[in-house]
Structures are given as C-alpha cells and as structure tokens.
Amino acid sequence: MPSTRRHWLALAAGTLAAPVLLRHARAEPPALPAGYRVTWFDARSRAGAVGARDITHAGDGTFWFCGQRNGTLNRLDPRDGSIRVVPLGPGARPHGVVRGPDGAAWVTEGGQNALARVDPRDHRVTLWPLPARFADANLNTPVFDAAGRCWMTGQNGVIARFTPASERLDAWEAPRGRGPYGITRTPQGSVWYVSLAGNHLARIDTEATTPAALQVRIVEPPTPGQGARRVWSDSAGRLWISEWHSGQVSMHDPRDGSWRAWKLPGERPRTYSVWVDPSDQVWLTDFVANAIVRFDPATERFTSFPSDRPAANVRQMDGIAGQAWGGESGTDRIVRIEYGV
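RESULT FIELD:
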C-alpha cells in the first residue's frame, strides 16, 4: 500500500474501461403476478466469473454493480445490455457501492481495505486506505450523511467515516465488536446500522466533531439472536431490517420506539437483503426460497419472485421508481423487476 493517502489507478480508455457487450437474457418466470416484468442481464466478463454483488443506480439510467470475485466495479446499461468494466486494483474484493452527492460511485473495497471512488465520466479510481491499526476491517456497506460524509461498516468490528472536503478517513472500534453490516440514512438525517454478529440496531451520532467524541446508541430488537443483516429507511424514517437467522423482516419506528415483525412465507426462510422503494413497498431476498420477495406494509402481504435458476443468492437490492434491481451472486446475473407495468 502506498504511503500517500491517495492512490490513483489510471484506466486506459478503450482498454480497461472498454464496454463489454453481453447477452441480455429473456425472462418471465412461470406464474408471474400481473403488473410485473422480470429481466435478467448476464454479468459475466470476457475473463469469466464476476461475482455480481451489491448494486446501485448511477443516476442516468445505468447501474453500478460490484464484481467481488474479479475485483471490479461494473456499469450496466440496461438499454443494450452492455457493461463497462472498471478494475479496482490488485487483490480487490469490492462489497458495497453507493452513488455519492458528487455523482460518483463510492465503493467499500475489502480486498485493499480502502474506500474507493470511481469517477462517473472517465472511470478513474481513487483509493483511501483505512488507518493501519484497522487492517482487515472487512468493509461492508457505505452511506452518505446529510453533510456529504461517507460512513462505512466493517464486519470485523469497525465503523469508519470519510470527509471528502479534507480527504480524511477516520475509523474506530464498533461497540460490541464484530458484526456491523447494513447501514442507512433516514430522511430526517440520522444514520443507523445493523450488526449481524451482534444482533442489534445502532444509531451513529454523526455530529461528533472528533472520532473520540463519537457516540453510538444501541437499540435491541425484540427477537433474540435474529441476525440483523441489512437495514433501509422508508419515507417516514421507519427502519426496515432483514433478519437472517429468524427469517423475518422487522420494522422499528424511532419516533415511538415501537417494533413489529413478519415472518417471510415458506419453511425456514433466510432473509438477506432489504430495500424500500419510493412508494414505501419493502423488497427482500430469501435464500431458502431462492426468491426476491415484495412486502406491502398496508396489506401485510408478500409477493414472491423466484429466480429461474437455482442458488441465485441476491445479497443486496436497490432501484428507482418502478424498478427493483439486484445482483444474483450465485448465477452472475443482474435481475430487474419492473412493477406497475
């Protein structure tokens, strides 16, 4: 790792960042509910397996997704199925990606133990490594707060904050050690994360002026050992949590401290991902059912969208109005569910 805080990887136009044209698969599984359309996009590169993982919209109709297996960030254009491949560096194993206030893709890069920024225009990569004492943080998921700072979780018991204006990256040990995983920001501006190994929800005091002054408030879910994996806020600031061990989706309302929980349909569900769409419908993934599952909080009904291939393993979702997106890590495909069609 270079001694400077900033590390540039120049990507030669037409070589490393050249678009890769891939087959864009026909979809529609049997018994698809009315008003929905499902499409799969092949995510594999010329070199083979990608390890398609976390995904986010790029703001222009294209979507970024992490290639955890081959150390890349990829930009899918659903209009023609083309993918622009951006290598992140030697040993890269990207996990989470989010579009920042500057329009760039910001990536938690576990292989190089760094936060990465990928410029949306020339795809130049910039890396900021974590402090040496936090080696092997196992970086997971990023989110930006209202002040434009990027907060990150590390499963090995790390919380980190990057301030773009000063290019300063601070990190500290998470309360209760290992487990920080999903992270979200509410419309009211608060930042919350969940701990998979620690089985809890936590709020970060983002207004602390120094890392030493930062406080984290733990909130205990009512289900013991639930395995809180990911969290997403709805438009009212209610927090929706995917519970890996319990197979539930739970909801915590910070305004009154209340909790509710619903078990996903089927036997022994394993709830991995959660995403709340702009209409406050809750999208989840169930590894046992091999499906994406939509939950309507008003009717408390689930609608299931099984993959047409086994072991799809969608680990994270995102989307835009009318479209839910996910990366099938087990099949190396990107899935899009259009609703209201």
